[in-house]
Every structure is written in C-alpha cells, then in structure tokens.
C-alpha cells in the first residue's frame, strides 16, 4: 500500500462510501483491518459512527490505538471523520465516559442544541477560522453534511480549524501537526467534500 490512503476498519461506519469518494478524486484508498495492513500507507483515515466508548475499546482490541498515535508522532497525515474526529481527543462523556487517543487536547460532550432537533442531521455552513492544507480552495464558508449528537471542545485555540452552528456554535474541524479531524462527512458533502479529501491526500507526510 505504498503511497496510498489506509481507511481504518474497526467494525464501525460505512467505509465503502469513503473509499469510493477518494476514488472519485483519483486517490487509492483501501480498507485495513489490522495495523500491519496499514504499515506502508502514506495517509491514514479514522472514520466512525456510533458510541465513543465501544469504538475506542475496539481500536484497542485491534491494536490501532497505539499504531495511530505512533504514526501521528512520526508525522503521518491522519484524518478523523465524525466519530473518528472525536476519538482523536482526550476523552468523551458519552455513555459514562472513556479516554480517547489524546492527539488533540479537549473533551467530547453533548451538543447544546438549544431546542433544535437531535441528532443534528443535514447540511450546515462550515466557517473556516484559519487557512490550512485541508481547507485549501474551499472558501471561507462551505456547506458540509453533519450527522451527530456530540461535539468536541478544544483546549488550545490554535487547534481549531472550523466551526458550525446547530443551536449553539460547535467545533467541526481541527488540526494539530499532521493530525486533522472533521465532524462532518466529506464523503457525503458533494464536490466540496471531495475537494477536502483530495486536499488531505495531497498533504506531504
């Protein structure tokens, strides 16, 4: 898998749609079920839907937790998508709480929807707070498709990439070093989402 994108398959989420989205922009992306299968990948994607505690436990069972933190420390570009972004953080309060990968400083908490329907499902404008390789060419505000009830809070303002609003404003994209995360689903976000995935694949390790 030299020079390719490895999409981590740990039993949660529809990975087929992510792989197809990468293929549409000419990027080779393959599902991997073990760290050994991802060893030679140049870029890593951590997707996910469902509950944080079960997901982080499954990553640990498969050995992906230490693999991902190790590769991130080496500078390998890593993109967390939806629950995958939340798993990058220190911890979540969901279902009694669990520790995360600790690659981004902060906590995952319920979205304060202020009367808006939960889960938040649908298109919301994403406001990019600073320039980055991930958001290159997307403009200052871009509509992206969200499906979630929990959101991350960043301890370090410099880690914040973008925000969106559903009742209250929330963090929807982050970046620290080679680690990126998006709360929205780029694979479901039409041409702008595809551009983001292409941007990620083009980030130099």
Give a brief rundown of this model.
The protein is of the alpha/beta class and 205 residues long.
Beta-strand content estimate: 25-35%
Annotated CATH topology: Rossmann fold
Q: Which residues sit in consecutive blocks of at least 5 with pLDDT less than 50?
A: none
Number of distinct helices: 5
Q: Please give the CATH architecture.
A: 3-Layer(aba) Sandwich
The secondary-structure element order is EHEEHHEHEEEEEEEEEH
CATH superfamily: Class I glutamine amidotransferase (GATase) domain
Outline type: globular
What is the terminal-to-terminal distance?
A: 15 Å
- Supply the helix-strand structural class: alpha/beta
Number of domains: 1
Numbering strands along the chain, what is their spatial order in the largest sheet?
Answer: 2-1-3-4-13-12-11-8-9
Radius of gyration: 15 Å
State the major sheet: 9 strands, mixed
Residue-averaged pLDDT:
96
């Amino acid at each position: 898998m030299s020079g390719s994108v490895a999409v981590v398959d740990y039993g949660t989420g529809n990975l087929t749609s992510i792989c197809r989205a990468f293929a549409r922009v000419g990027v080779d992306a393959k599902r991997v079920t073990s760290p050994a299968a991802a060893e030679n990948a140049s870029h890593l994607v951590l997707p996910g839907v469902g509950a944080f505690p079960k997901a982080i436990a499954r990553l640990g069972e498969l050995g992906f937790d230490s693999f991902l933190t190790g590769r991130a420390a080496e500078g390998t570009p890593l993109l967390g998508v939806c629950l995958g972004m939340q798993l990058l953080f220190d911890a979540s309060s969901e279902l009694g709480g669990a520790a995360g990968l600790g690659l981004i400083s902060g906590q995952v908490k319920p979205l304060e929807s202020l009367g808006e329907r939960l889960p938040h499902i649908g298109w919301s404008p994403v406001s990019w707070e600073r320039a980055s390789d991930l958001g290159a060419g997307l403009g200052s505000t871009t509509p992206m498709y969200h499906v979630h009830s929990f959101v991350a809070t960043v301890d370090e303002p410099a880690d914040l990439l973008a925000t969106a609003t559903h009742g209250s404003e929330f963090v929807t994209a982050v970046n620290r070093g080679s680690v990126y995360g998006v709360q929205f689903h780029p694979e479901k976000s039409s041409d702008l989402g595809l551009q983001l995935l292409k941007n990620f694949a083009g980030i130099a390790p």
